[in-house]
Amino acid sequence: MELMAKIAFWIYALIILGGGIVAVGSSSLVRALMGLISTLVGVAGMYMLLGTPFMAFMQLLIYVGAVAVLIFFAVMLTDAHGRGDESEPAPIRQHLFALGAVMAVGGVLSWLIMNRPPASSLVPAEVSIEQLGHGLLESYFLAFELISVVLLVAMSGAVLLAWEKRGKK
Amino acid sequence: MSIHPQLLHLIIALIAVMAWVGLNALVLVYFERKGAGFIQRRPGPFEVGPQGIIQPLVDGIKLMCKQLVMPTGADPVLFWTAPLLSMTPVLLLFLVLPYGPWLTGMQIDLGILLILAFAGINVLALLIAGWSSNNKYGLLGAARAVAQSVAYEIPLLLAVLAVAFTTGTLDFVKITEGQGPWPWQWNMVYQPLAFIIFIISAVGECNRAPFDLPEAESELTAGFHTEFSSMGFGLFFMAEYSYMVVVASVASTLFLGGYQGPFGSDGWWWYLPKVYAILMFMIWIRWTYPRVTFVQLLNINWKWLLPLGTVNLLATAFFMKLF
Fold first, then answer.
1. Which of B307, B271, B275, B321 is nearest to B166 (CA)?
2. What span, in angstroms and rounded, lies between the C-alpha atoms of A33 and A42?
């Protein structure tokens, strides 16, 4: 089973990285979105591998089933065939900057992982849905409720912004 | 090299599911056409085999022999991805359905959540199909599919949540065992409103008439699958019937007592009739009611199902605390 887990890890890692590259490099907006979606699916797979199926299913349900679909909806209403100003190839300088940014973050992270590896457990402990529910509504009650307040504020803000635009017309 | 028994079990279950999905599609196509014929006072398929029973199989062969066409200006990668993306998640959904005490592909604590999570991918598939075929009917169909699916998913979740509240679990087997074998012990009796909301939203989620606006043939030719020929269309078609079977199975597990039978006679022989009764009901209403308009469709959802579902959930929580 350990070999299976390793194979699964590499498959998910490839999906995440490949999706990321497509998301950044594709000239078509819809294809870029498909890259983003495959990254999200790959992350869901990683959650599964970490023994948290609840997180994995929620990732799929919310990000792939709802958020990505809504982004797609917004993209679909625009002309997404990649003919805009930004569809031209970027100058070499920008590629160098991008490489530098990747190297800086990646370098720090890989240095940390190489030199200060955290103690890892062989088999991740699976958290049952009951434990999760008790945790969210008992020990982390305040944080849980605060997040809902933040979401409510964001939602009201979005409604307010859309309302103003309609009024000006 | 030896294969891990759990993996072997999963592979066998997946192969069985593939066969089951194909068989169900054939049977349902036959029932649908016969049902339509009966309601419209005509014989339906009649010539191929006795009572036209081989008709779906012949139709399937015809579909496979047709030419695969891709319109110019279509996105080639996404165009061929869409039907596959619509069909493949279905196989996973059947794995967790409890067909009997021992006839479950993979029993997990979060069965319902798995079905909801992977069923959401279908919307994405319809959207990709509509967008990538570079066709205005396809695009309009996709836009309708999204507005409809996103809307009807909410009352569906609320109805499922009400059942999850009363039984305290998301595991299909535990929900089944929480109900009794007799009809008055089913969740349908304790949660009638949730059952009605679930069935209506399920019909909406499956894009079935009277809620089949994404593929309304009189307005949009065929909606999101206008440009798909041969098995491209075939896969969408099979996926639609498979999703029907999935929602009917979920409904019979959550509300109709699942595989439980009286006097300890549990098994798939109780489960399948319940599933097919709901499927027959869906076929019946498809050929009885005219298609609603899009405004009506969204009004039913946002002004009726959503508030009713919320009230039902609050009432359930209230009574759960009270007793």
1. B321
2. 14
Residue B158, C-beta contacts closer than 8 angstroms, at least 6 positions apart:
B194, B197, B306, B309, B310, B312, B313
Contact: A60, B109; criterion CB under 8 Å: no
Residues of A in contact with B77 (CB under 8 A): 31
Chain A contact set for B108 (CB, 8 A): 53
Phi (first) and psi of residue B320, to 5 degrees: -65, -40
Pull the structure tokens for residue B162: 């009400």
The length of chain A in residues reads 169
User: Is the ipTM of this structure higher than 0.90?
Assistant: no
Cα dist. B269→A40, B98, B107, B260, B276 in Å? 40, 12, 19, 9, 11
Q: Which of B170, B38, B164 is nearest to B112 (CA)?
A: B170
Residues of B in contact with A57 (CB under 8 A): 110, 113-114, 116-117
Q: How far is CA A42 from CA A15, A33, A113, in A?
A: 6, 14, 21
Asked if A70's CB is within 8 angstroms of B117's CB, the reply is no
Answer whether 0.90 is exceeded by the pTM: no
The pLDDT of residue B63 is 87
**A1-86 architecture in CATH?**
Up-down Bundle (1.20)
Q: What is the pLDDT of residue A18?
A: 93
Task: Please judge whether A76 and B120 are an interchain contact, meaning their C-beta atoms are less than 8 angstroms apart.
Answer: no
Q: Which residues of B touch A129 (CB under 8 A)?
A: 109-110, 170
Per-residue pLDDT, B122: 86
B117 closest CB neighbour out of A30, A61, A129: A61
**Does pLDDT of B155 surpass 70?**
yes
Report d(CA A127, CA A145) in Å as an integer. 21
Distance between CA atoms of residues A70 and A91, nearest Å: 32
Distance from the B125 Cα atom to the nearest Cα atom in chain A, whole angstroms:
10
Of A34, A53, A69, the CB nearest to B78: A34
CB–CB of B120 and A61 under 8 A? yes
The answer, yes or no, to whether residue A166 has pLDDT greater than 60, is no
Residues 6+ apart with CB under 8 A from A131: none
Asked if B215 contacts B224 with a C-beta cutoff of 8 angstroms, the reply is: yes
The verdict on a CB contact (< 8 Å) between B120 and A60 is: yes
pLDDT digits (tens, 9 = 90+) for B112-154: 888 888 888 888 888 888 888 878 888 888 888 888 888 888 8
Residue A167 has pLDDT above 70, yes or no: no
Nearest CA in chain B to A44: B117
Q: Which residues in B25-173 belong to E strands, given as ranges?
A: none
The alpha-carbon gap from A93 to the nearest alpha carbon of chain B, in Å, equals: 31
- Give one DSSP letter per residue of B149-165, joined into a string: HHHHHHHHHHHHHHHHH
